[in-house]
# Entry
Amino acid sequence: MCGIVGGIAERHLAAVLIEGLKKLEYRGYDSAGVALLENGQIARAREAGKVALLEASVKISKIDGSIGIAHTRWATHGKPTQDNAHPHMSGDVAVVHNGIIENYQELKAELEQAGYVFLSQTDSEVVAHLVHQALQQQNNLLKAVQAIVPRLHGAYALGIIDANHPDELIAVRQGSPLVLGLGIGENFIGSDQLALLPVTNRFIYLEEGDIVRLTRSDIEIYHQGELVSRAVNELDISVSSSDKGGFKHYMLKEIYEQPDAIQHTLSVGLDHDQLKDDFLSSGNAVLPAIQHVQIIACGTSYHAGMVAKYWCEQLIGLSCQVEIASEFRYRSPVVLNNTLFIYISQSGETADTLAALRDIDKRAAAAQKNIVSLALCNVPTSSLVRETDLHLLTQAGPEIGVASTKAFTTQLAALMLLVLKLGKINGTLDDAQEQELVQALWQTPKIINQCLALDKDIEAMSRQFVEKRHTLFLGRGTQYPIALEGALKLKEISYIHAEGYAAGELKHGPLALVDNDMPVVVLAANDFMLDKLKSNMQEVQARGGELFVFADEHSGIANSDRQHVVYIPTANAWIAPIVYSVPVQLLSYHVAVLRGTDVDQPRNLAKSVTVE
Ligand code: G6P
# Structure
């Protein structure tokens, strides 16, 4: 999604802002631009395509300045062209915008009436003209912005400069993430603190509705017109944790980081052979009343929720529903009393997930239902964490690759911890079960390391997918969501059409697609569904289909002419979905590399989906 970086300093900022944009590339974008103010004039460069192109054009045109705003745009209104790239200008005003201005058409009509000429198809350009218009009434940039913000409907973040106000930068957070970075004699804005890590480790996380005036030496934050103060957070996260560390792609690095990331996530909740007494103790007062679980998430996080549904119902007998946020939020869901709502989001900024949370909180209050909200998130400072009752944080570290890997497997590890906690609290998990699961969890990093050692075999297997146009992924039980996740990974980064299916559904449709040319990937863990799955594999073979199987080493599934097997070390059946996630990630990764796609930033996709 769109990314914003801006700053006001004594020094020249072009290089800093471009570097910041590079750190935001992972979010997904299709054009980029920068505006810099020097000697009372704003110079601007914009390019369709990558930040590298913008960097080259800034070098050639030698534009620079000590106040600037920069942007990566992920097209929503209008194609990814140079004219539609930000910053947008109106006279001496330049604006970068993240989010959507929902009433832009009405505002545009009004501005055109007033004589403004629009040079782009974006919703964002209205902001530049509105600020310009307001400045005609009062020559005060902060006041002009404060005057127009109530007119903008939607969720957005803004960075605004004006050539006639050379000592200030104005920023707005209204529904889209924006942080302030505090330097010495210089201050910055960014949609993600990662963009600002090269210049500071001191951040202020703005609240919705904050309007900020940044000068070189000061920051004034206004909320509903009043000057307010916000806490300064010092981060010890290093710049290098967001580097590729010798790997060809972030995605591969992040796949290899999984044993450590899972170990760290487990350490939050586990002692030697049991759940820590103080794990999620903030929930001790409210969780005993819980009778239902409702999980809400998008994309890969939704698949993590689907696995948790099996765990919740089969292990501890607690009813559990899972739904994608974009549907849930619009279908007027009935809120059951005593429900735990689990919102899963690695970023904690996904627009649909946040909207579902806000909607449910309102509905529950109106219907006087007892509910508890819990964020399962990788970003402690995110909106989701700030707006929920309870928080369970994955310890994945920054994930840069758009296709989620370590964020997913750490979500699974954390969800198992949560299921253990709920089972203990409601008395449906006995000590022996707890011990068995805890021991199995501790084994996971080791088994994943063994899976990573299979990388060469999986790479060899991946060659057989390069020329294919479609792929089926099959699994049963807890491997069904992993089949969905495998298919999602493959389509996201290799652009091969892939579908995940519960293998029992084969004969209700997808079997019609099976032929010589349709590879079928099967996840065959050693669980109680294995025999059923073997029958489904027979159905594929009987139709001339070719099977690519990740099979438990003791599954009895043999290699043959049309059945290619990579053997996976045996894992406890409950933990197996975490383990089998890794080979499907590696398979998709290698297919994508062989097809020459942009693995870390696949076309049309964004890491953090901050608009609907
Ligand atoms: C985007 C990302 C996915 C992610 C999904 C949900 O589509 O590309 O990797 O799973 O958003 O994101 P969240 O931050 O809410 O987990």
Remarks:
- The CA atoms of residues 482 and 581 lie 6 Å apart.
- Residues 298-301, 345-347, 350, 353, 402-404, 605, 607, 609 surround 6-O-phosphono-alpha-D-glucopyranose (CB under 6 Å).
- The mean pLDDT is 93.
